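#onboarding

Welcome to the new folks! Below is a worked example of what a typical request in this channel looks like: someone posts a single protein sequence, and someone else replies with the predicted structure as tokens. Don't worry about understanding the tokens yet, we'll cover that in week two.

Example request:
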Amino acid sequence: PGYGGSCFPKDTLALMKTAADNETPLRIVEATVQVNDARKRAMGRKVIKAMGGDVRGKTVGILGLTFKPNTDDMRDAPSLSIIAALQDAGATVKAYDPEGVEQASKLLTDVEFVANPYAAAEGADALVIVTEWDAFRALDLVRIKNSLNAPILVDLRNIYPPAELERAGLQYTGVGKPITESKDLIKLQ
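Example response:
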């Protein structure tokens, strides 16, 4: 869903500044920075599309807030742009992260921070994996499906094979992969 953190974003911006100061633009670095910024918001639109194109009045559960697992670092985290895109479209967001909630709560407004992944799924209209924490690789997918209002899981890190999510009855949306629809969702339509 895009890169974040403190090092790579800072380094790319420093390269651009040095190149500009020396009147030698680095178009590939400039393009990388622009594409990364656009990519983060595009992931929010991907979630909206997976939810039928309209999220006004709907709740989205977010799993993972930090820019990478095993840290509480929120600097330039893709989750910030994704959540902003969802909120701008009228969604309510509830989120869980194993380490980043304290830092995220300083940066995000109108987000309900919950105690575990299952609380993020409970009553949500979709669940979105934003950061690839190991804890998210071993979820009880049937429990997740049964907790959601609609069986929609958007995996922005492609940590689950689509067939595994289908077997659990979840509609799967990954990055660079087609949307799959659960049999339960097809029955509802």
